């Protein structure tokens, strides 16, 4: 077997494999690369010794059986026996479901999560979007502090566990998307700087030195990240990747890393003969993120739309702190703008940033499915002090209205696990750092942040307390009880309507029409022959729809429109109408 490693600042590299040592040679063609041939099979443990230092794991390790600081293990990617052929499932028409392996079930494993995939198939979603699964210190965490970006977290089930999960998802007709983090690595167990200039002080990020995308040595760093991304799609039969916080990728080169990545993914899709896609998380409100490369864009296939979330959140809750402030001034106007123009900040002033922000979307050329719409995400729930979901403070009727706006709206919908039944379990910030100093620093930092916003220390969950993670696990008995069962049935009905009515997957943003009455607290929009009306107020509402059609689905008792097409909606309720 050929072992290879990039270590350009090292004079000597030794491969340590199953107790034996092999001196590695300079690659004659690739500067900075070292290679060695050695006998090794699936599961063989190995590491690299740089200039007589300690044994380090492989930067391209596919498995870390003993955690990020332990030896790497060889993975034979051809050994897994896939049971279900998969021709892929593209993004147009999709409904995504964001899922965290460690809290989707109390067991917190791929196999336990796979056993629940029948629920998602019955719900009607098309893709599971997994939060990061790369190794991190300890057992439980969000996954955004991973340090071995080619490997799979062993407590979840390792590489084979992920493959079993994906194979089971395919058996249910579900695609799988994986959240990957290119903008930083975790603070503990990160050995990349020992090997070479993977990071640079040229730029600084909230996590310290930036990943080296444009300084000397960046060609190899970009190739490292790009090859890892393609390996996830190829070796694990994934359908797409969600790219965490691409606005934090400091990259001044003329050809950006994101353009390189999107081109490589498109080429791999052609080679494999199945659709593949990239979804960006970006706070830039820049439509060029998803504009084609030959038209001057980055060529990514979709991006999260936090502006729609913020408008919806303020309309539902009345919250106005932080970045919600601009949306809260007139939530219904903000919601109408995001439904029709995607971004609220499209060159407008952002009081949160203290400057103008964003750029308009060309509605005549940008298909609606390139933007994801959602009422809740791991970020928007978990970054709250108590990790409280909307269900903790809103009535079932308002949750039903949120579902109607997300699942019948113009954007590719995404649900956060448990949202479909109005889960009351919180989703809190939890860690399992093995370094006591780091654990205390994280605990103190979070405490400081929220005490500054008026919380008391006693109110705040301890990220390191195992009970914080346990509280965040879904309660699978809830869907069997009311009002959860009714909310689950409502989500199933809305997703079925989206699947069955072409109006609801029409990519034409310019065709959507919105009306609202902020005083009466109702909003309605039309997509083709389908109308959606929500009453977020505490009083009944009358909405004149003209030729309103018949009621296809409603939360609460709603009669057919009366004379003149007037629809009467009870408080905190909604309806979908069509011909």
From TrEMBL:
The keyword Cell wall biogenesis/degradation does not apply. InterPro entries: DUF3459, GH, GH13_cat_dom, Ig-like_fold, Ig_E-set, Trehalose_TreZ, Trehalose_TreZ_E-set_sf. It catalyses: hydrolysis of (1->4)-alpha-D-glucosidic linkage in 4-alpha-D-[(1->4)-alpha-D-glucanosyl]n trehalose to yield trehalose and (1->4)-alpha-D-glucan. Its EC number is 3.2.1.141. The keyword Hydrolase applies. It is an enzyme of class 3 (hydrolase). SMART domains: Aamy (SM00642). Pathway: Glycan biosynthesis; trehalose biosynthesis. Gene3D superfamilies: E-set domains of sugar-utilizing enzymes, Glycosidases, Immunoglobulins. Keywords: Carbohydrate metabolism, Cytoplasm, Glycosidase, Hydrolase. PANTHER family: 1,4-ALPHA-GLUCAN-BRANCHING ENZYME, MALTO-OLIGOSYLTREHALOSE TREHALOHYDROLASE. Belongs to the glycosyl hydrolase 13 family. This is Malto-oligosyltrehalose trehalohydrolase. The lineage of its organism: Bacteria, Bacillati, Actinomycetota, Actinomycetes, Kitasatosporales. The gene is treZ.
């Amino acid at each position: 077997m050929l072992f290879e490693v990039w270590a350009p600042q090292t004079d000597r590299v030794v491969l340590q494999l199953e107790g034996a040592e092999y001196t590695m040679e300079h690659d004659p063609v690739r500067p900075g690369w070292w290679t060695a041939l050695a006998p090794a099979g699936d599961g063989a443990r190995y590491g690299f010794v740089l200039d007589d230092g300690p044994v380090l794991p492989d930067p391209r390790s596919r498995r870390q059986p003993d955690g990020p600081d332990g030896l790497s293990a060889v993975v034979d990617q051809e050994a897994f026996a896939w049971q279900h052929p998969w021709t892929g499932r593209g993004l147009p028409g999709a409904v995504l479901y964001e899922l965290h392996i460690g809290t989707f079930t109390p067991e917190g494993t791929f196999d336990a999560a796979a056993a629940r995939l029948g629920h998602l198939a019955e719900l009607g979603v098309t893709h599971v979007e997994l939060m990061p699964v790369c190794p991190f210190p300890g057992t439980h965490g969000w996954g955004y502090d991973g340090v071995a970006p080619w490997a799979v977290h062993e407590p979840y089930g390792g590489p084979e566990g992920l493959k079993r999960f994906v194979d089971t998802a395919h058996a249910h007709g579900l695609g799988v998307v994986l959240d990957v983090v290119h903008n930083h690595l975790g603070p503990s167990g990160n050995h990349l700087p020992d090997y070479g200039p993977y990071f640079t002080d040229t730029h600084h990020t909230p996590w310290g030195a930036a990943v080296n995308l444009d300084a000397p040595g960046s060609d190899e760093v970009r190739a490292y990240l790009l090859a890892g991304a393609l390996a996830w799609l190829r070796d694990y039969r994934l359908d797409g990747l969600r790219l965490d916080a691409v606005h934090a990728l400091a990259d001044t080169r003329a050809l950006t890393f994101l353009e390189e990545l999107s081109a490589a993914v498109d080429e791999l899709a052609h080679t494999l003969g199945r659709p593949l896609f990239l979804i960006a998380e970006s706070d830039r409100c820049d439509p060029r993120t998803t504009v084609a490369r030959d038209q001057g864009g980055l060529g990514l296939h979709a991006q999260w739309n936090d502006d729609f979330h913020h408008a919806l959140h303020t309309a539902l809750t009345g919250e106005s702190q932080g970045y919600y402030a601009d949306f809260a001034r007139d939530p219904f106007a903000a919601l109408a703008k995001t439904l029709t123009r995607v971004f609220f900040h499209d060159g407008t002033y952002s009081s949160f940033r203290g400057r103008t922000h964003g750029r308009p979307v060309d509605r005549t050329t940008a298909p609606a499915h390139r933007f994801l719409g959602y009422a809740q995400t791991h970020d928007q729930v978990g970054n709250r002090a108590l990790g409280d979901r909307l269900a903790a403070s809103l009535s079932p009727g308002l949750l039903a209205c949120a579902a109607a706006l997300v699942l019948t709206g113009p954007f590719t919908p995404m649900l956060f696990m448990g949202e479909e039944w109005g889960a009351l379990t919180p989703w809190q910030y939890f860690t399992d750092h093995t370094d006591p100093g780091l654990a205390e620093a994280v605990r103190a930092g979070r405490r400081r942040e929220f005490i500054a916003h008026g919380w008391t220390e006693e109110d705040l969950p301890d990220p390191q307390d195992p009970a914080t993670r346990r509280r965040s696990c879904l309660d699978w008995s809830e869907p069997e009880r009311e009002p959860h069962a009714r909310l689950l049935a409502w989500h199933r009905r809305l997703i079925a309507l989206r699947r069955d009515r072409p109006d609801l997957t029409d990519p034409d943003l310019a065709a959507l029409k919105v009306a609202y009455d902020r005083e009466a607290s109702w909003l309605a929009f039309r997509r083709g022959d389908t109308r959606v009306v929500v009453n977020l107020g505490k009083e009944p509402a009358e909405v004149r729809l003209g030729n309103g059609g018949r009621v296809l689905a409603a939360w609460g008792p709603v009669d057919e429109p009366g004379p003149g097409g007037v629809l009467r909606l009870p408080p905190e309720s909604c309806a979908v109408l069509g011909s």
